Amino acid sequence: MPAIIFLAIVLVALAVRLWPRTVPFDQCSDLYQRYAAVDGVDATFIKDYKVNDTVFVDVTLLEATDSMGWATLKKDFEVPNATPIAQQFIDNGEDLISVKLIPKSTTTDTLLNSYPNNVLAISHLNRTLTVFHTKNEDEAHTVIHYNFDKSTNPK
Question: Which of 9, 62, 99, 146 has the fewest C-beta atoms under 10 angstroms from its C-beta?
Fold first, then answer.
């Protein structure tokens, strides 16, 4: 009998750990909702992404699946082309992540949080844009350092 109880506990723990966690569509960011059905772009919304031990932010990841998708994302987010020097690093497989502040996409987002900006991390190598939905200047500062560290200390 104790073996059956132990096995049941292990199975329940595994089910909880491995069960996919999804956020309802209407609770995802406006950016996710806008790009979820765009051809050439894979959109992902991550609730409470762990940046460090104390900072958790919602994140919208937009990944181009083809050159048209990448062109769309670059145009929509005003992403400049990589400089020739940066392009050499990218061509060698190094992921130089650039970061900039962008205005929050909706007035609702801005009304809920007094901080007016999100942080956009750009990976030309992976053709991804990651939008960190920050609530204050401290979170934005932490996210910027997180991305700088990720770019300069790849694992």
Answer: 9
